[in-house]
Specification:
Blueprint (H helix, E strand, L loop, with lengths): L7 H13 L8 H4 L14 H18 L2 H12 L4 H14 L3 H11 L8 H8 L3 H33 L4
Length: 166
């Protein structure tokens, strides 16, 4: 590859967007309305070759990270309600011994989704002080951040070895 990504964060984000983008031959409205200054990754490759590169990047993610870290990275990039976030919810609720539905709200909020209830609602539900609920949610977010950062650093090392990150 002549050009690489600046970071693993950029590479994974690009790969997930690329796998969700339909391949259309010929000009399309999106290309005609594209803003200038957009950085086209791998301009020498066609759409199918870019999809293959995206698959290689995601394969590096699968190979480099354990399941929990891979789920945290994919949940962060994919948003709230995904199979990866469900995996995280089960793991964290089991590890921290918290209610699955409470953990679900925190994970969805962390992964740019929309939580169903506020911390005030949870404090009324559990009949606890709101500061206790905030402390619980902070502990859950800290675990999510740790899983995400460890997974991202592992995949960045793997992508650097494969030549995707310069």
């Amino acid at each position: 590859m002549e050009e690489g990504f600046r970071s693993g964060y950029e590479a994974i984000g690009w790969a997930l967007r690329r796998t969700k983008t339909p391949i259309i031959d010929g000009p399309n409205v999106w290309l005609m309305g594209r803003k200038t200054g957009y950085r086209d990754m791998m301009p020498t490759l066609d759409a199918w070759e870019k999809l293959a590169e995206a698959a290689l990047i995601l394969k590096n993610l699968d190979d480099a990270c354990p399941l929990a870290e891979r789920s945290a990275v994919l949940a962060y990039f994919s948003g709230g309600r995904t199979p990866q976030s469900e995996l995280l919810i089960k793991k964290i609720s089991r590890d921290l011994r918290r209610d699955r539905w409470f953990v679900q709200d925190i994970v969805w909020g962390w992964s740019r989704g929309r939580p169903l209830h506020s911390s005030e609602w949870w404090s009324r539900r559990y009949n606890l002080n709101e500061r206790t609920i905030q402390r619980w949610s902070l502990k859950i977010r800290q675990q999510l951040d740790d899983l995400f950062s460890m997974g991202l650093s592992r995949v960045e090392d793997s992508l650097r070895e494969s030549g995707h990150v310069v």
